[in-house]
Design a protein that fits this description.
The chain is an all-alpha fold. It contains 10 helices and no strands.
Amino acid sequence: MTNQLNQLLKVAASLTGVVVVWWAVAISGLINPLLFPTPYTVLIAAKELYEDGILISDLGISLARASIGFVIGAILGISVGILTARTRFFAIALGPFLNLLRPIPAIALVPIAIVWFGIGEGSKYFVIAYTVFLAVWLNTHHGTAHVAQTYIRAARSLGASRLREFFEVIIPAAAPHIVVGLRLGAALAFLSLVAAELSGASAGIGFRLQDARDYIRTDRMFVGLIELGILGALLDQFFVYVGNKLVHWEQL
């Protein structure tokens, strides 16, 4: 309990310091207030968006898109990661191709996603799932491929079947890496979400950032950025908590 309180105090102190510096710079006159609003101006903008129903609506739409894309990418990433790590055929057939995809950023796929799936939700799910898939696949592949041979030999010496060896030795040993991949994938889901919503969207946090840019409403842009930051931080802590509960033999 004391450690948790200390962590909360550290976070509060850090955020307070950032807000104080932000406010000082904003009122110093060194930067045009239209380009760098004060925290109070951003708070007023958030209040306006909330009262208009835009803040909650955009949040719900973006969360739904990120969640669906994350689930699709995570399921595919774990499945393919296990296959490429434990099956030679899939390692040879898919490994080089997937490593070739890794340097391609999500935003580069937005045009082709729109051509393939249109400007509807399908293109956004594709972009998000693609980013999540690569992160989860890489961590799952690494964790599953590098299970200590002593564990496997011990299981086989005790007469464990291949199926039991897989579920009781390989998966538990790789689980910490898989959870880290899911945690990274969740963070990347929000990054690719913004890229997906910058084109062909009429609602969502990414769309609202672009709309605010068109009208030079930097206060509303700051609201969107802070919203993304809070969501990402909360989601990251959620994965840390769940990961430590499920993978209790290794702290994440």
